[in-house]
Amino acid sequence: MSDAPTVHLTTLGCAKNQVDSDKIVGLLTEAGYGRAVDPSAADVVVVNTCAFVEEARRESVETILELAEAKRSEARLVVVGCMAQRYGAELAEALPEADAVIGIEGYPGLVDRLDALTGWQPLELRPLRRPAMDLLFRTARPTPSTPWAYVKVAEGCDKACSFCAIPQFRGRQRSRPPTEIRREIEELVAGGVTEVVLVAQDLASYGRDLGAPGGIVDLLRFVADVEGLGRLRLFYLYPRDVRNELVETMTGLEVVADYFDLSLQHVVPELLRAMRRPGDGTAHLRLVEAIRRRAPEAAFRSSFIVGFPGETDDHVEALATFLREARLDWAGFFPFSPEEGTPAATLEPRIPDDEVAARLRHLEEVQEEITRLRAAEQVGRVLEVLVDQVEDGVPVGRSYREAPEIDGVVVLDVGEPGTWCRVEITGSYGHDLVGRRVEP
Ligand code: SF4
Question: Is the CB of 250 under 6 A from ligand 1?
């Protein structure tokens, strides 16, 4: 093959996987590979999979089989990501459609693997050193014009939540050096990004493995003055690690969004103990209230597991009551999935699927009402909005309250993608806000 092969990449799973995909694109582009938006036009089709829970694995396999159908017969199909890392040879055996299954640890050798698969020999010399994935810079982002990007500050997790298999395949926590993270943010900002979302499996524990006691607090202070950076947002905060100093730093630094993504999981003490997670509803409420004392308009998001073994109707009502008291802006609810090799996988009694589905619907309805009320309460406020895109001539953006891809949006009257506007909120529609631009 003389011409540079083209690669189509499909990404599944979480923000951290998105970052890995951006880095894979950077690695392959640097090695001379081209991009193909259409899988049927690509020489290599890569699927970056998710293995967090059963549902995600099912979606990964379905996507692999769909792309196996969609690709040209002579094109190569490569499976990467968490499913490849977690199941490796077993997955390769189960999916003969895949020409290669390459786990996260195999990424530094990804280019060599693709060269071997395609038989491509680039004419010009490539850079000798291929950095390890964790340290690899990325310049790609969701779409070239997206004014925001995720930055992964650490890989892996040292916690041991009983339902979670992530530490099994993503390993122990490995934090990236602050200088590395700052340079990546500077490069992204130079490329047009103005909002950065910091992600990791356990963000609030950032730096512990580096022996950096100040951890995430020092990191925020270290990157807050990057020129051109308009907003920093934090995802995946483990509640017990959200201490006063972190709250003071987040609410004290203007560039940091007063947006608290607290992974609470449940409120019932005995269930949380079985999940090997801290706290209870009272402690969670105290944390939310303490943050509100410092920042009355702070926005909150959380995620909850429903149908954990032993959960009763009363437990579900206790969670519903907590939601009404805490009045979080956003919340996601996920059915319990018995993950192979985790302590929770063998716990009893299991909750029947139809019962779990009914509980999910109930809790989502309770939260839906709260999210609408929280949106309606924004009417009359003037918010700083980043315009993400213009859809059918209508500018759409987000204030500090709305994270990309998972929360609502702000629809405004005028505004160019990538620009910041002061917007008076004039109305709300469900989760979304409507506003008109007001001059500073
Ligand atoms: S904090 Fe718990 S749920 Fe999150 S990645 Fe670590 S072990 Fe999994």
Answer: no
Per-residue confidence (pLDDT) for residue 440, from 0 to 100: 61
Boundary (domain end) residue, out of 71, 103, 132:
132
- Report residue 88 as tokens: 């490796």
pLDDT for res 15 = 87
Q: Which residues of 227-240 are buried (b: 16+ CB within 10 A; e: fewer)?
A: eebbbbbbbbbbbe
Interval between CA 264 and ligand 1 midpoint (Å)? 11
Regions in the chain scoring below 70 on pLDDT: 1-2, 123-144, 440
Nearest by Cα to 212 from 239, 176, 252: 176
**Last residue of a domain, which of 132, 148, 181?**
132
Ligand 1 atom closest to the Cα of residue 157 is 6
What pLDDT score was predicted for residue 135?
46
CATH number at residue 167: 3.80.30.20
Q: Ligand 1: which residue has its CA nearest to atom 8?
A: 164
The reply to whether ligand 1 has any atom less than 6 angstroms from the CB of 265 is no
213 with 351, same domain? yes
What's the 228 CA to ligand 1 centre distance in angstroms? 33
Q: Pick from 161, 163, 170 the residue to mutate for probing ligand 1's pocket: most ligand atoms within 8 Å of its CB.
A: 161
| DSSP strands (E only) in 207-266 | 231-234, 259-265
Residues 26 and 148 in one domain: no
The CATH number given to whatever domain includes residue 110 is 3.40.50.12160
291 CA to centre of ligand 1 in angstroms: 23
Residue 99's domain comprises 6-132
Give the residue among 198, 178, 190, 256 at the shortest CA–CA distance from 228: 190
Q: Is there a cis peptide before residue 349, judged by omega within 30 degrees of 0?
A: yes
196 lines ligand 1 (CB under 6 A): no
Looking at the structure, tell me whether residues 431 and 367 fall in a common domain: no
CA of 208 to the centre of ligand 1 (A): 15
Clarify whether residues 394 and 329 are in a common domain.
no
| 143 shares a domain with 164 | yes
**CB of 167 closer than 6 angstroms to any ligand 1 atom:** yes
Q: How far is the CA of 335 from the centre of ligand 1 (A)?
A: 16
Same domain, 335 and 405: no
Q: Tell me how crowded residue 251 is: count the other CB atoms within 10 A of its CB.
A: 16
Give the residues across from 152 on adjacent strands: 199
Total domains, the chain: 3
CA of 271 to the centre of ligand 1 (A): 16
